[in-house]
Design brief:
Three copies of one chain form a homotrimer.
Chain A lengths: L1 E6 H12 L4 E6 L3 E7 L5 E8 L5 E4 L2 E6 H8 L7 E7 L4 E6 L2 E6 L19 E6 H12 L4 E7 L4 E7 L4 E7 L5 E3 L3 E6 H10 L5 E6 L5 E7 L4 E7 L7
Antiparallel strand pairs in A: 1-5, 1-7, 2-3, 2-6, 3-4, 4-18, 7-8, 8-9, 10-14, 10-16, 11-12, 11-15, 12-13, 16-17, 17-18
Protein name (chains A, B, C): DNA polymerase sliding clamp
Family (chains A, B, C): Belongs to the PCNA family.
Function (chains A, B, C): Sliding clamp subunit. Responsible for tethering the catalytic subunit of DNA polymerase to DNA during high-speed replication.
Chain lengths: 247, 247, 247
């Protein structure tokens, strides 16, 4: 069984973080939280979303798994505005999700979870550097890199205690440097990796500009990017595989 | 002869109600009102617009009929902003419409009225139910229905004193229920009909969100939707033929 | 050598005036001003931009010439917002332009100036009429003309002391008349010429609505349109060749 009431914006922000990577996903309706893990078809970008029971006005679940088309679910939830409450209820018999809000009742057919790409394991990585910055700063660096290239280099300069978002195009370059004053926090370490901008741009779409974003970075290693949602009662973690740097 | 002065927004709102259905129309320049009746090429949706002489700053006409290209006329009127006054004058000799506003004089070639599809007769129908609601509510129901289907069912539940805007898609359903508290007025009666969403969406584009909209509904019968324009000195009536409900 | 600091909006507005006509241009880095002259590929529209050293926070140059891709340069400058300062520095060795702003360093490859279309000579013309008007008025006239035709007639009526922006389409006409009250100033003279709307629309995109725009007009002669930028410390002049009026 699953029955929950949640503000439309909380649910929408959470779903957005997943729908930038995949069209369909499994949603785990655990007793104490709703969670989604998904990986894009090319196995390059992963997302791990958890939304605590406390993020909901009310939440009852017993560990089921449902499969959903995210665009459809977001359309339905999008009929509610801002803080309007949305009620979700699983009809076990018909395998449909009932979505109710002020006057409007919708029924969304679910997808067989077995038909959805398997959930990825998001590994624990021991990454040397950790950067904490505003979503708006990450956004600026990604936009700058996107002007000259289709990949971006994230790098920590341990000596200068600075984080660099860099891109080298065929003719033009950009280097966005954030030092201790620009960052919320920095644990400097040897860290320098190259990533596809397409994925990072997709992830960036979902990251609120005002969010406090933590970037964990290594040397030619995947990057982990995480931030809180639902006023701290939920969490989004992205992991993105590196591209090999040519010399 | 025809010569009139009217605020740009009044004229634009009135023309919008027609241009969502047809590209060209006849305009009847009656002594006491300007009126347009038109039907779409498939004979499914009709509109009847009347704009009283009182809706104009000044109005002189003697019963002529002109044919216009609505997009062009709206472009010309659109050069004026908001409450700016627009002067319309028919040049009988050249069969052109002179359109004047602050500094700008335009001449719009008219279309031979005989070349325009005949004006429909909009029948008096004795429809069992009458629903009065805000344009914004109708808009919400239509948007919800559009997520799952290309047709929509309008239905009055006489027992519950409620109006339903419903749609059944191949896999998903929506039901937008408006009860006595949500409606401005309801005359309940047996009423349940299915309509093409394409037409209803077009009509909805022209209906102001703040308008008080009256919906007259029957059992597998056309629906009539009407609302006031020009602060009550004009009226728009849409009529839309039903689709046959399959069982 | 070239090194300058300037507010992003000042630089962007100046570059916009050129990029509406051409994709690439030469920039002359004179000791006392930065200047650009360019002509479109069809030799119909020309622009002459000058930006005094005083328009910059700081400015050092010794007469060099660089070639730039305007879209790229505008992208880079566009990363700064509003009054944020942008630093430009020419790297003589690599022939690249370094662009720096709060945290962000970009390097833009320059184009060989010899590969760019030659700068036009913008002739002194003795034009009979001079009209000074708000950018917003010019914009309105151009928008109106664009509804009915692809060329526009600019005309001064010396008797009525009025400036006309007119267009005759196949079926419809517009005439936007600005008299002494609507204009900032008018030196009436025999002036009546026809121009391509495509070019005038492009130029109009760059002209601020609030700018005081001077139009110099003759009889089947090119028109000159100029306005100040950088709070009077710069100037843009457009020249547009006439189309021959058919009778």
């Amino acid at each position: 069984m699953f029955k929950a009431i949640v503000s439309a914006s909380t649910l929408q922000d959470a779903l957005d973080s997943v729908s930038v990577l995949v069209d369909e996903c499994k949603i785990r309706l655990n007793e104490d939280e709703l969670s989604i893990r998904a990986v894009d078809p090319a196995n390059v970008g992963m997302v791990d979303l958890s939304l605590d029971a406390a993020a909901f006005e009310s939440y009852e679940a017993d560990g089921g798994v449902i499969g959903v088309n995210l665009a459809k679910l977001e359309d339905f939830v999008g009929m509610a505005s801002g803080d309007e409450l949305v009620e979700l209820e699983l009809d076990e018999e018909t395998r449909k999700l009932n979505i109710r809000m002020d006057g409007l009742s919708s029924t969304l057919a679910l997808i067989d979870p077995d038909s959805i790409r398997q959930e990825p394991d998001i590994p624990d990585l021991d990454l040397a550097a950790e950067i904490v910055l505003e979503g708006a700063q990450l956004d600026r660096g990604i936009k700058a890199a996107d002007m000259v290239s289709d990949h971006v280099r994230l790098r920590v300069d341990a000596d200068d205690e600075a984080f660099h978002i860099q891109a080298e195009g065929d003719t033009d370059d950009v280097d966005f440097e954030l030092d201790a004053d620009d960052l919320i926090a920095l644990t400097a370490g040897t860290a320098d990796s190259l990533f596809s901008l397409d994925y990072l741009k997709d992830m960036n779409k979902a990251i609120p500009k005002a969010a406090e974003v933590t970037v964990e970075l290594g040397e030619e290693f995947p990057v982990k990017i995480h931030y809180a949602v639902a006023e701290g009662q939920g969490n989004v973690t992205y992991m993105l595989a590196p591209r090999i740097q040519s010399d």
